[in-house]
Amino acid sequence: MSTLQEAIKAAINNAMLDYYSALPGRVEEYDYKKQKATIKPLLKQRYNNGTELEIEPIVNVPVSFTRSGKASLTLPVEKGDTGLLIFCSRSIDTWLSKGGVADIDNKRIFDLSD
Question: For position 89, what pLDDT does the model report?
């Protein structure tokens, strides 16, 4: 592999360190009325210099249950339960506040807050 190819590959790999698609997480708090939780990611964040730090808990995480039409299946959620955090490919701020078909309000992609 040429030096240029290696440099490009390294740059892409470094950029990808800031993108998230899914992580295991643990419930710290749960509001059953709003179906939102505070979730502690269970993998550390690795930085370009090789250091690793725990990721702070993420607040206002929508909890998804199976739904169809007017029916839904919900389960009790308790502190300490684990599950899979899924991160949206684009910002969901507007969708969370207004619902429906929402405009993308910023350029954030695969971010911990989404």
Answer: 80
